[in-house]
Amino acid sequence: MRIVISPGTISADDADNLTTLEVTLRDVTSEQASEVLQGAGRLEGGYAWLTVETLRKLAPHPRGADWDTRFENMIAYARSKGWMNENCDTVRAHVL
Fold first, then answer.
1. Which one is predicted more confidently, 61 or 3?
2. Count of structural domains, the chain
3. Which domain holds residue 23?
4. Which end of the chain is more exposed for a tag (fewer CB within 10 A), N or C?
5. Is the torsion defined by CA of 47, 49, 52, 57 positive or negative?
6. In what order do the strands lie in the sheet with 22-25?
């Protein structure tokens, strides 16, 4: 799943690919991206911390029948690797 942050918007590209999670900044600085992310996550170093709720909302509809299961598997994998916050409601993604 690729999250794209561009001026004033957050969107998901390749939302059906749940074997990776990455963030791309498109035509925005880190400071501008941080403003766009307010309420959805934050930038910290070379990472974006995104709420699980935001990731679900960004995935387009309709989705495949197994999307929710694969999404939960992605989140469980991130949790097992320590890529989530203490409350397990925010997941870390590389900013490319």
1. 3
2. 1
3. 2-95
4. C
5. negative
6. 9-13, 2-6, 22-25, 90-95, 47-51, 41-44
